[in-house]
Amino acid sequence: MAGHRVLGIIAMNNQLGRRVDQGKRSSPADLVLKGGRVFDLISGSIFESDVAICGGTIVGTCEEYRGTVEIDVSGKTIVPGFIDTHLHIESSLVTPYEFDRCVLPRGITTAICDPHEISNVIGTNGIRYFLDCAEQTLMDIRVQLSSCVPATGFETSGASLDIGDLLPFKDHHKVIGLAEFMNYPGVLAKDVGCLAKLDAFSDRPIDGHAPQLLGADLNGYLATGIRTDHEVTTADEAREKLRKGMHVLVREGSVSKDLEALIPIITERNSPFIALCTDDRNPLDIGEWGHIDHMIRTAIAAGVEPLAIYRAASISAAQLFGLRDRGLVAPGWRADLVVLDDLEACKVSQVICAGSPVADTSFGNRKIIPPVGRNSVKSSAITKEQLRAPDFGDETPVIGIMPGKIITEHLRFSLPHENGRPQIDLTQDVIKIAVIERHGKNGNIGVGFVRGFGLQRGAIASTVGHDSHNVTVVGACENDMACAANRLREIEGGFVVVHNGEVLAEIALPVAGLMSLETHEVVYQKLVDLRQAAIELGTVLEEPFLQVAFLPLPVIPHLKITDRGLFDVDRFSLVATR
């Protein structure tokens, strides 16, 4: 052991010595970006400078350098690599390898992910899969350990993780801390299991998840050491949380689009306490609009100072999560760099990740970890008779969709009844929703109603159903709903659109019912076809599939549904039936 330690010290000294020599120009740098301009995120100035790189570290700026390899970036601007501070890679519908290939060329060099979705299906095997993949990807994938699996006790998940399941991963070098603590009612009720997890990770970054939580209850929540929130949806909510020391992670996902509402708080003064995240963003939106790069150009177009938004995209995020080696274009910092043709439009020309220029060929040498979670859809075949809604009384509670939000309304409607059961009413845009337990545990089926999809016919079904990922199906016809749910069993999970018993479009997600084994380009095209099929059924939603996926999430106000039935989030209880 002593010999290995000595060899390690010698290697480090040699590496540091090379950096010194190349930084002070005693020898050519390994790589030099020549003739460009650097955007200084400390002062906000932009100055002409070469950028010299040794291995994976920046060793020189503000000087002219010679390099073994030189890249001409004349007329271009160099900024630090972008950091997505909170996301579920599973929601990109592709494996970590394809996510890497999809977003790294857009400048996202670090992703802080919570493998919460796959953990709800297959437990610690899902965490282990993500950590193993993170060792192989070009971008730096870091993991926040999933804190709430399942999110509540009012749903059936494929697995349950307690503190004993998480602690073995705590010291893994890819692990940062504890992911979004969404069970805020459990925290405020001083639930023993919740407090045990928070105590065990008190020395690490802990992410929050507290939509619309304010006042004294917010104080109690923050007193446990939670520091961030990505569920902030208004500027006033953001201001209170900032005043109370929270870091606001501004989110722009495929469903939850909060950037526009939070533009007023993204200022130079606030920027050290603001970072950016996508949470859940699929290849369709990434392909058509972008990722963190989309957030940057959208914010600048809305009047945000470039200094504020570029800080939020890099140095502020890095400092928040203890990644103190990245976030600036300066000597001694990690060489994660984005070369831009246009700073305000965030038009990416070249990406350097850990000192290596990223090209299509860069992804070919990664070791591929075999996929996990196959054959995870274990629900039985169902019939339309099993999709009868319970009787709720004179007025039926209905989930109200809020486009661009995962928050829903708690509505009440007088619906037509047949044999004592409420029925679909297309004249009021009220269709049926069902959540079918798919982990092979109890066969539960929760049935209710939802408004806002605009469907006039057919059904849409998904095994992506946050957070326990049971089968969720919405439809204007119970026959089509049953057909769609049964088709998901045959393809190992995914998304399906059905009309008159015919599958109009589908995508298979055989990795835990969450991720495809196809390339992100193939997934993009299949999502285009799915969207068109949903439009033909009458949907008025821009992203109907992830909207379906968030309806079973019982920690987001106000009315949701699980395999156990309709759930009143405000009262934190199941809705009573007759």
Write the layout of secondary structure elements.
Elements: H1 2-23, E1 29-34, E2 37-39, E3 46-48, E4 51-54, E5 57-60, E6 67-72, E7 77-80, E8 82-87, H2 96-103, E9 108-113, H3 116-122, H4 124-134, E10 140-145, H5 163-166, E11 175-181, H6 184-188, H7 192-200, E12 206-208, H8 215-222, E13 228-229, H9 235-243, E14 247-251, H10 259-262, E15 274-277, H11 283-288, H12 292-301, H13 306-313, H14 315-320, E16 337-342, E17 347-353, E18 356-357, E19 396-400, E20 409-413, E21 417-418, E22 421-422, E23 430-436, E24 445-451, E25 459-462, E26 471-475, H15 478-490, E27 494-499, E28 502-508, H16 520-536, H17 544-550, E29 559-562, E30 565-568, E31 573-574
Parallel strand pairs: 1-6, 2-7, 8-9, 9-10, 10-11, 11-12, 12-13, 13-14, 14-15, 19-24
Antiparallel strand pairs: 1-4, 2-3, 4-5, 7-16, 16-17, 17-18, 19-20, 21-22, 23-24, 23-26, 25-26, 25-27, 27-28, 29-30, 30-31
Compact description:
By secondary structure, the protein is α/β, with parallel strands linked by helices. The chain contains 17 helices and 31 strands. 27% of the residues lie in helices and 25% in strands.
